[in-house]
Amino acid sequence: MKVTNAILLIVLVVSSCKQKETTQPESVTTYQDIDSTITDSNDAFAPQNDWDYQSLYGIYLHESNTQGFTAILEILPQGNDLTFSLSVKQSNCSGQAEGSIGMAVHTETEYAGFFDNPDCRLEFLFNLKQQSIRLQEVGFCRLHENGCDFSGTYIKKR
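User: That's the sequence. What structure does it adopt?
Assistant: Structure tokens below.
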């Protein structure tokens, strides 16, 4: 009985080690085909270089700007992306950030982009109809003192 089981085991091992035949599919899908399918199915994330950012350029003031608190955001062009300069001042703290916003999402009513810096990660959500930007710190930000925050809604100055 042991010999039969051993022979059966050897047959199974040998048959499983056989190289499987490969068959060529009738049509081969390329990465380019997959890429265009993804792009076609989700235009908000489509990589394009013809987005019009001109209406986004300008100076934005934090909605809570009052005496003792000031936050100013300036958006400027930079090739296919945008640059920003941001400052916040309160009686007990201040902070500044500047850099490039990598634009990632484009819909009819909103654009979104990100500033990815190890010291501070920021998410920008541009509301095209209201001409405002919702800015959100993602994680801990070391570009301002404790007690300050860049987050909030910024309204375009007319």
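The CA atoms of residues 110 and 148 lie 27 Å apart.
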